[in-house]
Design brief:
heterodimer, A: alpha/beta, 9 helices, 26 strands, globular, B: alpha/beta, 9-stranded mixed beta sheet, 8-stranded parallel beta sheet, 10 helices, disordered C terminus
Chain lengths: ~375, ~400
């Protein structure tokens, strides 16, 4: 798809996972045992042969730079096109700096210089195994101005809060857009991804900048629904929208179902920053069932229904249940964790017992020592 | 070209026919090993960790997998204007060129490559050994002793001496003589196939050896004995760490087993000595409801629903429910069907074992090898077919 470029917007979504997003954007929140949130959309674009990708970086973007580096791990370290990190606007005191269109506006050069005619704009808050070739074909065949990707969710789904819903007519035209809707029967759930001609995107960004009215770029699209041909495309496959700690926990745990594991990881490869971790090691009386385990882990205790990121150490006599342990977590002997999420570098001493609940998992922030 | 003190050359051209069907499609150094690696990763990581930045990898037999692996694995780490890792295959020359006739001839054919860096020393290594070694120490000893050649040696069990080149040394480590695969050895110090030479001297011997029509053009058989005969200053460097030549099915299997346990003979997760490799781009392993694992090393992308005990699983392996895998090595992307039992076996890459099969015998000390070519055969077998083979 040489004629389609990608923009990943990591600006819109911060602070939503409490302490987990205090020091990093949602885009670099660890997810799925060895990935960061952004890996899914980025790999989806690469797997759809999109090779010019710009990433709108938030103000706090050290972890993003550290993760993406040259883009080589996504085959994007190229001489022509490849990965471009688009820095945030210079002056955060300027009016409207908190809105994403401001970030778009300060990187208009990048859009103007790119040789592709079409752009897909996406956010990093949605997990899936994406392939944009069919949606793009649809977009060009119906000669849409804008095509929004959506999925149907059961009414009253837990992922509904703070989402955007689409009202769709019989001809797949979007007739109305609801921001943060209250409960209703509309279940067409916008994935935060839309494609359009580059020229139109530039025009919309300039409109936002001139009017300084909308709180996000997508709002302008909704304001101009009458003038634009906006279509909706139903995206198939397993999708997870991460918008709060609870949804993070629930969608993480879903991966323990081998069926979902396959759906998320197998159609197209999910790339991430490559690390030379040793294979996971099970020692002595180790027992692991219903678990997702990444490289570099060393397990001597019991792990059940849990996700272990890189280099997690589970010592003898320790029980880990319904928990998510991020990289470098070390749990000493005879400890017991249940419904716990440990951010990176957490140390749990011997004999400690910590319990959260399914609805309210206990969260330990980065570097906690107990 | 910038001058280098030491250039490393890694001999990686051999087929390794004693590894049986594991090397029908790839060279021995490219055989997957230890949960996520390939054999050559150990030697190349040793070079990088020892701060050697100019490495030639001599390839010949089925070089493709090996080449890809080197280029994606260690090469980015070594990328620089002044050094790097270079794949050196036989090439055409004015006089026509030819295949590598032996280890010494392989280096002889690449004299120009080494000469570019005008090194003082050349470190000759094998691409098919499993070990962690800081080459700076052998180089240091070589320098201090003002040696012309230094050979790394290790004590091997007396019963195994007939498989190795055995050194007889004096108190000062000076090598007196060298016996290739002796029947009545006087020592159990075996050559590890790791040599440091002063490049000008080695070059001289390589040029002379090339003219000998009777020579096997081999380091162990020709160059080393000739240098000893000429009274060159040659020293042994005794190595005490873990080292394994994985040239046979048994030693390959044993080296995999040596990685298991709380304090394995060879630790892969030493942060001070990382082993660099190529990421398989696979998701984290998925253990299902029924999975049981104890004493195992499991790579990314595996789905385990059965029982894995004292085994090594390479990336992308699938163990169906009810299956039992014990004392075995399962190569990448192999599939073990439900309720099958695998004991003391090496299952080749991509092989599908049907349901209710039995491979290897728990009582048998021999290792069963199911090669890649067996994939189709096993797939089409009846579900309750019993397979129990001697060394394959």
């Amino acid at each position: 798809m040489g004629n389609l470029m990608g923009i990943i917007n990591t600006v819109e979504s911060s602070q939503i996972l409490r302490e987990m997003t205090l020091h990093r954007p949602l885009a670099t929140v660890p997810f799925g045992g060895k990935y960061r949130m952004i890996d899914f959309i980025l790999s989806g674009m690469v797997n759809s042969a999109i090779d010019n990708i710009g990433i709108l970086a938030p103000y706090q973007h050290r972890s993003l730079l550290d993760h993406l580096r040259s883009g080589r791990d996504w085959q994007l370290g190229r001489k022509k096109d490849g990965l471009t990190l688009l820095p945030p606007p210079y002056d955060p005191k300027e009016k409207g700096f908190e809105f994403d269109w401001h970030h778009f506006h300060s990187n208009l050069d990048f859009l103007q210089k790119s040789r592709q005619e079409f752009v897909i704009v996406a956010s990093a808050g949605v997990i899936g195994n994406f392939d944009f070739s069919l949606p793009f074909r649809f977009h060009t065949e119906v000669k849409a101005d804008i095509t929004c990707l959506y999925q149907k969710q059961p009414s009253g789904d837990q992922d509904c809060p703070n989402c955007i819903l689409l009202d769709i007519g019989n001809d797949n035209r979007v007739t109305a857009i609801q921001f943060n809707p209250s409960q209703g029967d509309n279940t067409n759930f916008f994935l935060g991804m839309f494609m359009l001609r580059k020229g139109l995107l530039i025009q919309l960004i300039q409109t936002c900048f001139a009017e300084n009215a909308a709180d996000c770029l997508f709002r302008v699209i909704s304001n101009h629904l009458q003038q634009l041909k906006v279509y909706a495309y139903l995206y198939p496959g397993h999708i997870a929208r991460i918008h709060c700690l609870h949804s993070y926990y629930r969608h993480s745990m879903d991966l323990l179902d081998p069926q979902i594991w396959r759906e998320l990881f197998q159609p197209g490869k999910i790339y991430t920053k490559s690390k030379d971790e040793a294979p996971a090691k099970y020692v002595g009386q180790a027992k692991a069932t219903n678990a997702l385990v990444a490289g570099g882990c060393s397990i001597k205790g019991t792990v059940d229904h849990s996700i272990l990121f890189h280099r997690v150490i589970v010592d003898e006599g320790t029980h880990i249940k319904n928990s998510i342990l991020m990289p470098n977590t070390a749990v000493a002997k005879n400890a017991c964790l249940e419904h716990v999420i440990c951010d990176k570098d957490v140390r749990i001493s011997a004999g400690i017992c910590l319990k959260g609940s399914r609805e309210n998992p206990l969260f330990l922030k980065k570097g906690t020592v107990i | 070209m910038q001058k280098k003190e030491c250039v490393a050359v890694v001999l990686a051209g051999g087929r390794g026919s004693r590894l049986n069907t594991l090397t029908t499609t790839l060279a021995k150094p490219a055989v997957p090993f230890g949960g996520r690696y390939r054999i050559i990763d150990f030697t190349l990581s040793n070079c990088y960790n020892s701060q050697l930045d100019t490495i030639g990898v001599l390839t010949q037999y089925r070089p493709f997998a090996l080449q890809c692996h080197v280029e994606d694995g260690i090469a980015p780490e070594l990328a620089s204007c002044t050094g790097g890792v270079f794949i050196l295959s036989p090439y055409l020359k004015d006089d026509g060129g030819e295949w590598y006739k032996g280890t010494a001839n392989a280096v002889y054919q690449n004299i120009d490559f080494i000469d570019q860096y005008s090194p003082r020393y050349v470190l000759v290594l094998s691409g098919d050994h499993i070990y962690k070694m800081d080459y700076r120490f052998i180089l240091q000893q070589h320098r201090l002793k003002q040696a012309e050649a230094t050979i790394s040696v290790i004590h091997v069990p007396w019963k195994d001496t007939s498989r190795f080149g055995i050194m007889n040394i004096g108190d000062d480590f000076r090598i007196h003589d060298f016996e290739e695969k002796p029947q009545n050895p006087r020592s159990n110090l075996a050559s590890m196939g790791i040599y440091v030479f002063n490049w000008p001297i080695l070059k001289q011997y390589l040029l002379a050896d090339e003219k000998e029509t009777e020579s096997g053009h081999d380091f162990g058989k020709n160059i080393i004995p000739q240098m000893l005969q000429d009274g060159r200053k040659m020293f042994a460097y005794p190595f005490t760490g873990y080292w394994k030549d994985v040239g046979t099915v048994e030693s390959f299997w044993q080296a995999n087993m040596d990685l298991l346990g709380d304090e394995p003979l060879l630790a892969l997760d030493d942060p001070l000595w990382p082993i660099y490799t190529v990421d398989s781009v696979q998701p984290p392993q998925c253990l299902t409801e029924a999975a049981i694992t104890s004493q195992a090393l499991i790579g990314d992308g595996c789905i385990v629903a059965g029982h894995v005990d004292h085994s090594v699983l390479l990336p992308g392996v699938c163990i169906a429910s009810g299956a039992i895998v014990k004392n075995s090595v399962i190569m990448p992307n192999a599939k073990i069907g439900a309720n099958s039992r695998i004991f003391g076996a090496i299952i080749g890459s991509g092989v599908s074992i049907a349901e209710n099969c039995c491979i290897g015998c728990s009582s048998n000390e021999k290792i069963t090898v199911i090669g890649e070519h067996a994939a189709h055969l096993l797939h089409s077998k009846a579900a309750d077919d019993i397979l129990c083979r001697e060394d394959g």
